[in-house]
Amino acid sequence: MTFLSGHRAVLRRFLGQKQFALRLAQGHVGSSTRDEEVTEAARSRFCIDDAEVLELADYAILIEQHYSAQAGHPVPMDIEWAKDAIDGNLHIVEARPETVASRRSTGVFESYVLTGDASVLVSGKAVGEKIGRGLVRLISGPDDLKNFRPGEVLVATSTSPDWEPVMKTAGAIVTDHGGRTCHAAIVARELGVPAVAGTEAATATPRTGQCVTVSCAGGEVSCVYEGEVPFEVTRLPASALELPRTEIMVNLGNPDLAFRAAMMPNAGVGLARMEFIISEHIGVHPMALVHPARLTGEERARIAVLARNDASPREFFVRTLAEGVGTIAAAFWPKPVIVRLSDFKTNEYAQLLGGGVFEPKEANPMLGFRGAARYAHPAYADGFALECEALLRVREAMGLTNLRIMVPFCRRVAEAELVIAAMARFGLQRGKNGLVIYVMCEIPNNVIQADAFAAVFDDFSIGSTDARGRSRF
To answer: In a designed cystine with 118, which of 112, 182, 225, 309 is the match (CB 3.0 to 4.6 A)?
Structure first.
């Protein structure tokens, strides 16, 4: 929707491993092909740039609109494309109605959960969200396919189209090479078979005849476990859900689970924690990206590797955070998504790359330099500017104005006013384009001075913690 309204931004990107490239053996049309190992420099680059991604998105929308208009109803399309090696132009090479995902029943919620644990043999990119189990069958070539038995776990370096009759009977598929768009992933996704792509070592680890459990229920990364790990499958018809009159919102911090969570009955996201994205997808202290001179040479080198595909380390932080938050906001659009500003404690911030030099050592970080106290303080103001820039990008560049903001651990009204003023300077002005800003009501003064805080913020998010540390909202 935001694309059609004129917003042009890439929501999210993944850098594939690209270990091998299929090249013409003699360098011209008509020659045989060969596998060529991809250089490390080429692996670290994206295959296409943002402008080309947006060009393909435009093509896809136009194609779907055309066929939908012809049919008189929405027609989801399966589109294949190629980039010409000579002139660099993008070409659509095939478009046909998509017949798997679009016909999948959305009236039943199916959830897979591991209920046991075991040793992890290999891990890779998750394809699907299911869990499969069976005996391993290593396939090194077409001749091995005749030995494959239905329900076995197919393990191979990669797969090819002529393997599809066997792949349809597999309990799971595991490959050394490839990503979410490789042949094995495409077929597994269409068939609803759990698959693990790009493990790098699958064919060298499990043995033929060995029992394994393949789990894609943990988000982006899936694992192959040794033995029969118990798991549960829950199937719940939407018609069986009796929803309360109260609008129920979900808590979510992992962008990898956003679209799955959005399929459940909900009124949006009541709390999206920014800390997960910073710790798991960025891993660097925000101040370290603004003041690299205070870091060691080793720390600067590690940051340079992380930011190698960005214009600067600062842009790496802003882009990655914006894409993580934007993924959640897009998944639930147009329902409200309330994102809480970073609420690490000083000891947690110090564990991020480059964080040790910027954080004080506190006897009780739970009550120390955290939450709203950091945002306008000189010790973190430059880092807060990066957070605000990322959220502004989500709302304005991506057009996801359903994003709302929550300020945590705000002790004093004067502190609240400083934070609101700082956010406005960075473009996040309360009320602009419908921006709503909440405060988290979690300390006594938020209640004692509720009227004064209510004059600064749009609303409260009320939270409390019991003796076992479980948040209740």
So the answer is: 225
How far apart are the C-alpha atoms of 35 and 22, rounded to whole Å?
5
Q: Which fold has domain 20-103?
A: D-amino Acid Aminotransferase; Chain A, domain 1 (3.30.470)
- Name the residue among 165, 119, 123 with its Cα closest to residue 142: 165
pLDDT tens digits, one per residue of 279-311: 888 999 999 999 999 999 999 999 999 998 889
pLDDT in tens, 27-63: 555 567 778 888 888 888 888 888 898 899 899 999 9
Instruction: Report pTM.
Output: 0.71
pLDDT tens digits along 215-267: 998 877 889 999 999 998 888 776 677 778 888 888 888 888 788 788 778 89
The catalytic residue positions are 183
| 3-class secondary structure per residue, the chain | CCCCCCCCCCCCCCCCCCCEEEEECCCCCCCCEEEEECCHHHHCCCCCCHHHHHHHHHHHHHHHHHHHHHHCCCCCEEEEEEECCCCCCEEEEEEEECCCHHHCCCCEEEEEEECCCCCEEEEEEEECCCEEEEEEEEECCHHHHHHCCCCCEEEECCCCHHHHHHHCCCCEEEECCCCCCCHHHHHHHHHCCCEEECCCCHHHCCCCCCEEEEECCCCCEEEEEECCCCEEEEEEEHHHCCCCCCCCCEEECCHHHHHHHHCCCCCCEEEEEHHHHHHHHHCECHHHHHCHHHCCHHHHHHHHHHCCCCCCHHHHHHHHHHHHHHHHHHHHCCCCEEEECCCCCHHHHHCCECCCCCCCCCCCHHHCCCCHHHHCCCCCHHHHHHHHHHHHHHHHHCCCCCEEEEECCCCCHHHHHHHHHHHHHCCCCCCHHHCCEEEEECCHHHHHCHHHHHHHCCEEEECEECCCCCEEC
Six token digits for residue 280: 């798991």
Q: Which of the four CATH numbers 3.30.1330.10, 2.160.10.10, 3.30.70.141, 3.20.20.60 does domain 245-472 have?
A: 3.20.20.60
387, 403 contact by CB (below 8 A): no
**Is the distance from CB of 405 to CB of 438 less than 8 angstroms?**
yes
